Amino acid sequence: MPIPASLNEVESYMTNRVGLETSFDLGVRKLKVLKKDVHFYYVNGLCDTIPIVQIVKELVGINNRKEISTQLQEIVENRIVHQSVEPVDNMDEVVDQVLSGLIVILVEGEKKGLVVDVRSYPGRTPQEPDTEKVVRGSRDGFVENIIVNTALTRRRIRDERMRFEIMKVGERSKTDIAIGYIKDVANPDLVNVIRKELEAIEIDGLAMADKTIEEFIVKQGYNPYPLVRYTERADVAASHLLEGHVLIYVDTSPSVIITPTTYFHHLQHAEEYRQSPAVGTLVRWIRFIGVVVSLILLPLWYLYVKNPHLLPEALNYIGPNEDSNIPVLLQIFFADVGIEFLRLAAIHTPTPLSTAMGLIAAVLIGQIAIDVGLFVPEVILYVSLAAIGTYATPSYEISMANKIGRLFLLISTAIFHVPGFVVGATLWLVLLASIRSLNTPYLWPFLPFSPKAFFEIIIRRAVPGSKIRPSIVHARNRQRQPAKN
Fold this sequence. Notes:
There is one protein chain. It contains 15 helices and 12 strands. It is of the alpha+beta class and 485 residues long. A hairpin with a 5-residue loop joins strand 4 (103-107) and strand 5 (113-116). 30% of the residues are buried.
């Protein structure tokens, strides 16, 4: 619907369509400028008051310096003291912009309005993410404001070829989403695919923000393994942009989606690149060991418990040294589920009480459960080691997916013993090898095997030696460090 020339019609439209007189936070400011009506439409709480006051002062001051003019629209536009002013010519866009936190200025008799970006969304200031902490490095992380998040990225990549394409998704929420990439580096086919997938989303709203977007663009289904990577660190996001990845920024979310990603992308951490290559490699190996422990330690230990003849003479001490009335398999499941109870309780418990909750769980529940014979000590030991390996996994999504894989492997081992362990591990590997994230092999560079890229997964190379961007992103410009003349 085009903007009516009569402001009374506009006000009636805003009242009936948006609830101007019903919603307390939706308002209109009416001025008289050169004997013509001028209306401001805004939403309290989403606008910065200071620039609005400056604009009102400038427009009211026109009455003292100008005679009556037929060119009031041009005069108003020139008097708006703000860097972001855009024309608008239909009411649907007026409504969308007002509800997004911008103000719309309409002049009596004009069929075009002016949109001024005075957004000031409530939210946190940038701070270090809890899940991606480093010993050395920046302490500014993404927040729930998409403008702040793109600015944090721009601060690290001041390239004129950097692009942030913004669009709105959600019939009711109209959530701002930006696609970030470097034009001469990112694969244009990947950018087009992501753009088309986002434009094809039809949903009322994005209450869960980036997670909803992920489920639409990768169509994960019930596959537990994540097909995209999340990060709350601006330096990590900038590093992936420079490699040729495409990022998706969603307003109201402090996480940024990185595409495409593989299994090994989820095992990287910023700490590896904040230390020397040797220390970074050591940290990476320890992390890999933790991931392997979280996945196969319990099934392998249970296999040896049920088949002690498989153990070499030097390791015959492995296995419970005392009998229990409860089967070892049930003990493992009870202990594993108990640790999940503790993890959920820690999430939902207020911080001042979480320490007390941990002490109660460790000292009282754990020790008493052993004393009464519910668990044997070895079960608690190996379940705890597996849990520590889970927490050592950088990606929360991968750690939970590996937990599901561990339970599957444990059940297959309990039923079929050695063949169950071997077949279960093979099926797990086949599952990972069959996954493709935005047409990217999930186990690359292990399957398909790329020796040079796999070496960089195992060894953290020094930055001067990393001259080529990863081939998996199909970057337009493979050279990270142009050759010297």
